[in-house]
Design brief:
The protein is mainly α and 106 residues long. The chain is built from 5 helices and no strands.
């Protein structure tokens, strides 16, 4: 009430509406910026997940090529849950490992 009375006294009867409209615009701008940031983060995460999935699939293809069709569900699960660093390590090892056990030695 005191703020409303002050606004009417200083800015006239339309001052409250002007201030409210400006406030609403600021809120809407903030929401829009938040949405844009959320979209950008989502796109980046999607790209990163796609790259990681591609790395995993490539590693499994290399393992199948190197060791034949010996890739069991356990091996696929291990690759599916491995970190990016672990995938990179295994991808290098696949060139020289003699067995799957040697490849996946931690």
């Amino acid at each position: 009430p005191a703020l409303q009375a002050f606004l009417e006294r200083v800015g006239g009867p339309d001052a409250k509406d002007i201030v409210m409209t400006a406030g609403q615009r600021l809120i809407e701008q903030g929401i829009q910026q938040g949405v844009q940031q959320g979209i950008q983060q989502g796109v980046q995460q999607g790209i990163q997940q796609g790259v990681q999935q591609g790395e995993r699939e490539l590693l499994l293809e290399l393992v199948r090529t190197r060791f034949g069709q010996q890739v069991d569900a356990g091996t696929e699960q291990r690759v599916a849950t491995a970190s990016r660093e672990q995938i990179a390590t295994w991808a290098k090892r696949v060139l020289f490992a003699s067995t799957l056990a040697e490849l996946f030695t931690d």
